[in-house]
Amino acid sequence: MVNDQDYYGYAGGVLYVDLTTRHIHKEPLDIDLAQKFVGGPGIGLNILNKMLKPNTDPLSPENVMVFGTGPLLGTIMIGSGKCYLNTKYAMPVSKDKKKYFIATSMFGSNRFGPMMKNAGYDHIVITGRAEKPCYLKVVDDDVEICDASDIWGRDIYESATILRDRHRGRNVKCGIWVIGRAGENMVSFGVGFADDWHNAGRFAAPVAGAKNLKGIVTLGTKGIKLANPRKFKELADKKRQEITSGPNYQQFLPFGGGAHGKLMQDTLVGLEGCSGGMCACKSIHEVKNGKYKGTRFGGAFPSFAAIVHMELGIEGYPDNHGPGFRFVDLANKYGLCVYTAIRMVRFVTTLYKRGVITKDDVGGLELKMGDIDFYEAILEKIVDRRDIGAIMAEGWYPMSEKLGVDASEDLECGAPITKGVDVLMDARIWPSLLRSDNTGLSPAAGLSAILSAKAKQSHSATLFTSREVPFSIVREDTNRMGVTNEEMQRIFTEDSFNSGRLLRFSEDTEFACNALGICDACLHWLNDPTRDIPWLSELYSAATGSEITPRELLRVGERIWTLEKVLNLREGFNRQDDKIPPLYVKNTEIPLKSRDGDRYLTDWFGKRLTKEDIVKMMSDYYEERGWDVQNGVPTKEKLIELGLDYLADGE
What we know:
Aldehyde Ferredoxin Oxidoreductase,  A, domain 1, alpha+beta, 3 domains
């Protein structure tokens, strides 16, 4: 049994659940492993390394899902509600459907993660497949696989409400992670949600659905012990004071100006954030009148409604905002990725207009741009896998192959796709949609999506373009990452930076934050003062009683990033899979039309790029990581340097 006195910062337990045999057991957290990886996804990836055989079908019972936390999660630390989910995802990354990636999904929570730790578990490991729909109840030492037949088929919010009422604590609310109908029917771009409004695992829901797992309930009363609570509070309070006294502090994600900003303010009915407070990054909005009165949606991007109207041709925004709210609300209830849903609907609607698909293909529907009734119907078809929806549910590459039109190359209606995933923030247009008149393939908003396991865009001061962030802020942000003077000289010139080299340290910093269980972007991404490696190393030491230098904490992030890369090498990945989205390549030569004229793909500074420029960025990135540049993989020497000898030996 785990002795709670042996752990500070950590809960001290790992819970293993086999849904096939219904066997449940607990093991003590390996404290040596925890110190090597700090916590979070590094532990989960090590578990996958031991338990998941290469080339396992992601929808098979043999796939493994690992949920977990870090040593600062659930404390008074700012943004300390960040959980992780490691698994092999069911999104095909090649047209022949023979390769799937292993990756980390980070998600916020205000109850799920803290309640998991308070119940005594840093990590929950789920294998197998239940005979019938189930959910996992984790209430302190009372762990049970429960029948979910009454909530199977219900939407995200209905299911969460039922489970929350069923397992209501005496003084506190339980935490909930749950999937919707999209996950139940194994739609490739299904997502899970935590605590209602936190998107928790893009593309992870079909893995849970294949296991007949509807969700997880967490509730704990054991508390979290800190080694030096007084020092921890002093460090946390000092940073809070620094943030709140700063001129740019905002309590929630700003909506921007103009008619859109006013609409978002007028429709705002609630704000949600992670535990630790200070930033309510999830805003909840409601239609106040008209046909869609009462329709709500929430999440980190209130501009979803505007994107729906622009991408899908619904006229009259913002006065006619109801259809956009309705689309996002439905996607959330079904547990679909809103981004992918918008782009896929646009894609098939355009193909219908071209005559590539017919009315028979879509079950007799008349597809036309701007028709919200059709959009509602097509979302229903996707989650039920009917007609054209069955093809869309398989993912971008299988759909493109079956329809004979490659969405990753179609300038009119396609999407930037890498490793089978459409990039969230399209570097050609994203900032111009929301805040700025220019765009760019920055380290965070473009390059990171190409190089990560599942098109994840890393957070840093370069997330948006130079009109949003002064160049000096980028240097300041990089300094707080704990980068040495020698490394700074490799990254920066007097008025520029090397995108590939900068990205390496942004990613390492992000994974260091993930390991701690905190949000690396809790103050809206730009110049986030909590992304401070020296300060975080002090907090970790105060929480756990284990000393760690800033450089070693940054090295932890590098270690986790490298481990994730090696696991994907075993799945058959190499540098060729770090594929530049074909639409980006086309945009280096073919302009996009905008209100400001022809627009070509540029870097963060607005300089027009060529394909060779992007390839050079990637090579600089590999070199800065100390990897084999030609193949884009870690060398044996690098693995040994990071203490990953067991990977170097192929264990």
